[in-house]
Amino acid sequence: MSLVIVLINMQKLFKDFFVVNTRKRKYKERNHVSLLGT
Questions:
Q1: pLDDT digit string, tens, across residues 1-38
Q2: What is each CA distance from 24 to 9, 14, 29, 36, in whole angstroms?
Q3: CA–CA separation, 12 vs 31, rounded Å?
Q4: Which residues of 3-38 are buried (b: 16+ CB within 10 A; e: fewer)?
């Protein structure tokens, strides 16, 4: 039972980490585009 909880928590952490990384990348790309535009 506890192992299942640990796995679910790990999955949540991984998902959050992935979301944060994709957001950072999008933010960087947007900044880069705005820099090129000016």
A1: 799 999 999 999 999 999 999 998 888 888 777 777 66
A2: 23, 15, 9, 18
A3: 29
A4: eeeeeeeeeeeeeeeeeeeeeeeeeeeeeeeeeeee
Distance CA 32, CA 25 (A): 10
Number of H helices, E strands in the chain: 1, 0
Place of tokens 């796995």: 7
